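User: Here's a chain of 381 residues. Predict its fold as tokens.
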Amino acid sequence: MVEPTPGMRGPQRTMLTLARYLAPRVPLVVAIPEGFVSKAIRAGAPDAEILSLPFHGTRAASWLHGAASLMSPLGREGDGILIHANGLSALNLAGPLARRVDAPVLVHFHACEITARSRAFLGVWQRLGVRMVFHPVSTFSRGLLEAVGVRTLVRGILPNPIEQTDHHAQRPGPQRPFRVGWIGSKAPRKGLRRVIQIASLLRDEPVEWHLYGVALNRSRTPYVNRCLDEIAGRGLTDRIRWCGKVEDTRSAYDRMDALLLPSERESFARVAIEAMARGVPVVASRVGGVPEAVRDGASGLLFDPGRLDEAATHLRSLVHDPALWLALSSTAFREADRFDVTTVGPMLERFYGDMFGNGNETAASSREGRPRTATLTGRSS
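Assistant: Prediction complete.
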């Protein structure tokens, strides 16, 4: 697997989950910069071969130097390489290798938008004859791909998997005070400011707000500073707890009674699935692929993006209605099973078989007949 950055966001956690599943089944090369993810793969997928990539501050530099690093050990492999690119940036990094050895590329598409730059690169790889197919994480993502000229290359949906052994846990009931959690980043589309506005609507309720993913000592962008000013201006400083970066998301979910996901755009919402697997009800904006992951009224409660009052009403219901909380928690716990890697992994194996011209071939059976499987992953652009 190739990852241009050593971070641990949703696509990288998907990469780690699939690496653990694939490593005992196929000869797997994981190309990634040294850091948390490479250490986790060494620990969780010891059968995988690690190819250390250089890391640079810009995507263009990462693509350029990363492509050269891939060419050196893999550029003469010939038949038997299948490239699994986890995102469009991974495709851009792996494209030169794919063209040199005429390797098929399976692109696992996670993005919630396709930029003009990405459309331009897609056109380049098509004109150069790179053999690629796209497996989106949701119906929403499929629509994005079909709108940019690759409709004939789009195949079946491949959801982001989780590992139930990591996340499965039934919850006995909510805590007091009720704890609403958010896991996101400093990117405005993740909805940090919306969390603050919803918290203000619930200022009279017995609710604590636990925010994960933004380290104030490192992430003080102008947007984050505006959010901090708004927290102070609304008198919420003593109600909102900044919990910083989190590597073990299980511990974060176990401190929550509900996950708030007020994103402006999402292709899939992996954090929602992880929370559901811990028995945490999800209150989320009805955007992108979120309704495909969270069933409204069953495993969570959805609200229209412009109706933050609706989100506040949903959370207030969970605070004061234990029966509703228990019903959503139990259903969320069960429905997370459909995203377990034991379900998604065999789907991926069938997609690999399709690319080798045999729809019935699994990755496990291809281990003996294929000299190498390179799974390349990267940031979506």
